[in-house]
Amino acid sequence: METVTSLAATRYQPTEYEHAANCATHGFWILPSLVGGSVLYFLSVDQWHRVAAWLYGMGLTGLFVTSTLFHTAAWKISHLRKVEQRFHMCDRMAIYFFIAASYSPWLMLRELGPWACHMRWLIWVMACGGSTYVFFFHERYKLVELLGYVAMGAVPALVILSMVDRAGVCELATGGVFYVVGVVFFKSDGLVPFAHAIWHLFVAIGAGIHYYAIWRYLYLPGVIKVQLN
């Protein structure tokens, strides 16, 4: 309990307006992410497309839901340190599964090299490993957590580059740039007003670009092909 209290005490305490912005900037995207995942599911032309759409939709929606719940808890029940800490842990764990879910459509629906295909399941092992680390060492070694997210984002990207069909890679890179630049604001709480809310906006933009790429290059071609046949 002392560890939880001390960690909460050292963390930057947002203003009321910043709390509201933190909730709104991710809460707003919950419904669109549900709709977006459903659209991909109904555009699916086979079982693999449906599984990929389900995984991606759940990861995308889960990220915005857990983030909104945590920031709501940090705003309204911050005096319940242990409860807030549990929400914070879930928020951090959801990021690992969101990264895995974001890559899954590309890894499942594109032709990969003989060694690269193993990343389809390795990325979920990485997500489980990262979540286990958060469960046991949450907020103790922040640099290690940050490096874990960077590794989760970078390693599968190397596999994506091995694809024969590279359509959509430009959009993937662009979305990745938004995530990376957003980290600057993520680490600027207390230095830049509304820094965390700005980080949320960068995440939403990056996720939107990645969603467009998945819809445009992985799902739309299948629908067009079925219609032409």
TrEMBL record:
Please, which domain of life does this record's source organism belong to?
Eukaryota
UniProt: Zn(2+) binding residues: 71, 196, 200
Give its localization: Endomembrane system
| Family per similarity comment | Belongs to the ADIPOR family.
What is the topology of this protein in the membrane according to its UniProt annotation?
A: Multi-pass membrane protein
Q: Which sequence ranges are marked TM in the entry?
A: 26-44, 51-73, 93-109, 121-137, 143-161, 168-186, 198-219
Instruction: Give me the gene this protein comes from.
Output: MMD2
| Principal subcellular localisation of the protein | membrane
Which positions make up the signal peptide? none
Tell me the Pfam families matching this sequence.
HlyIII
Q: Which UniProt keywords apply?
A: Membrane, Metal-binding, Transmembrane, Transmembrane helix, Zinc
Instruction: Name the PANTHER family for this protein.
Output: ADIPOR/PROGESTIN RECEPTOR-RELATED, MONOCYTE TO MACROPHAGE DIFFERENTIATION FACTOR 2
- GO CC field: endomembrane system; membrane
Protein name as it appears in the record: Monocyte to macrophage differentiation-associated 2a
Any one GO MF term held by the record is: pore-forming activity
Originating organism = Myripristis murdjan (pinecone soldierfish)
